[in-house]
Design goal:
This protein has a single domain (about 30-540), classed as Cytochrome P450 (Cytochrome p450, Orthogonal Bundle), CATH 1.10.630.10. The strands form 4 sheets. The chain has a 5-stranded mixed sheet. Strands 4-5-13-10 form a 4-stranded antiparallel sheet. Strands 7-8 form a two-stranded antiparallel sheet. The protein is globular and about 65 Å long. A hairpin with a 2-residue loop joins strand 11 (about 520-525) and strand 12. It starts with about 30 loop residues before the first helix and ends with a strand. It is α+β, with helices and mostly antiparallel strands. The longest helix has 28 residues, at about 65-90. The protein has helices spanning about 30-40, 40-60, 65-90, 110-120, 125-135, 135-140, 150-165, 170-190, 200-220, 220-225, 225-250, 255-265, 270-290, 300-310, 315-330, 335-350, 355-370, 375-390, 425, 445-455, 490-510; strands at about 95-100, 105, 125, 190-195, 195-200, 395-400, 405, 410-415, 420, 510-515, 520-525, 525-530, 535-540. It binds protoporphyrin IX containing FE. Protoporphyrin IX containing FE binds near residues 157 and 488. Protoporphyrin IX containing FE binds near residues 334, 481 and 488.
Amino acid sequence: MASPMINGPWQPSNTTTPGYVEGEVSWGPEPPSWRSISNSVIGIAAVIFLANVLVSGKNSLLLKPIQRRIKAWSYLLDGPAMIHDGYKKANGKTFDVITPGERIVFVSGHKAVKELESQPETALSLYAASRKILMPKYTMHGLHIQDSRGAAGAGFSRAVRVLLTNNLPRVLPYLGDAIRARIAEIRAEGHVVDGVKQTDLYPMFLQLTSLSTGTSIFGKELASNAAFMKDAFNYIESVVMGAEMVRLSPKWLEPIMGRFVTHKIKTPEILFNLLYPIAEERLRERERASLGEEVPKHTDMISWILETAPADVEWTSQRIVQEVMAVWFGSIHSTAFIATTAIYDLCLHPEYLAPLRAEIARGGYAEFERNPTQGLPLMDSFLKESARVTPVDYLSTRREVIAPFALADGTRLHKGDWLCTPAASIGLDAAYFPEPTKFDGFRFAPRELVASLAADGSVSEGTRMPKASKIVDVDPSWLLFGTGKLSCPGRFLATATIKSIVANVIANYDMELVDAAAPRQWSWRSTAVCREDVKVVLTPRAN
Ligand code: HEM
């Protein structure tokens, strides 16, 4: 699960998207209380940091611990540079970065990544790391995330990786129409400067991503309910923000900060009031089906979770809703980030527009809708290159050490340390990617395809990789979606969503960054965050 630290706004909408129903609550800006808290999280971090420094300084009266602490806290805003520097200095060896909460040990290279993958869940846990990021004890009404998913894990993963992915051809044609309509509506609401409409691209893409993944996870009907989707989106933000505040507190302040956060996070009533009765109804239907009765067929996460659940695990409506929310939590921000940076890259490298549009127009998009895991190979390569050059997260495969052990190279791992991979630095390493600082949009595309385009002068041959590959691939040099049996099961939905958004933008609009020199991202811990104020001019293309 990616761990974004983002306070994306939810745009007001008087939408007319096909099938889109306005809820009782119109979509508006975040509640002021959370908005102001999210905006001041860095300020709170600074105050807590000073308290930390003063406590340690008073006790030790030595400068060194203070310097160490300053360095650890600088990780919050300087994480990517610290990881990248560590990677360059380590020269292929294991290295560590000290952060305010934990020591992060980084491994890279085929052997070390295999070693990480092969550790049992009793030693290394993805879920213990997620627990630290989400602090469910305080943010999710005491929900307990276990260190290991146990027997239900395989079913859960199959529900997302196989059943949700297999459903994509059924939802993509509907989503194409819905995405096109929403783009036009949101663009129409943009500010006009010097007679030209400007669009805040990232907030727009957060909405489109929510619509797309929400349709797959909750089903068309719920995803068309504005009030439901607003609640679902805001819940992610509240939990991540609240968890961060608790995480930044010194141990002695944690229970007080935890109580404050619990009090602050309001139960997303519309979300749960709609989800629980559906989950209960599905449990009743399962019961009836087991007695041989005919029951309706559903295509959403609730039905897939029940379909793949091991028979010996007891399922309650509460547990089903928690599982659905676990999938929803990891699905939005990284997906919207990659779609957004791809459009920025197209503004900066417009020579790719013609071949990408040609791929869409000559049947590529229709083929993608029929076969989402294979279609649009040129766009797939472009998206992979964009995600390589502007990484969404500098670390991947977060695992918390729950039982101490030593790596084959002798590095000792203590309880509470994290073991991760420096995914972004590997992506920028010449040992894996020739001319790594050069943007080559078709670097990963099948060679014969690029050669045919080069022959007619549409693209240059560029810096090809020895072998074509896809953005959803998982290997020790491409860790965007993690590694091994815990690798992201939602990556097929994420990529289909990104392709659908990017294809519908570039087929229908020309695009230009209003200020190509202005910063477009910032970072929190290891994660890159899109700035919300980056404006793009989308000009409808003549047909
Ligand atoms: C570009 C977008 C995304 C990125 C970069 C991403 C990345 C990741 C990563 C790095 C992991 C951990 C893998 C590991 O530690 O080895 C992960 C896990 C996970 N992701 Fe994603 N993800 C994305 C989108 C999605 C979407 C759209 C969904 C939902 C459909 C999703 C559902 C999950 C789930 C459920 C897990 C936990 C897997 C498990 O419990 O076994 N992700 N993701």
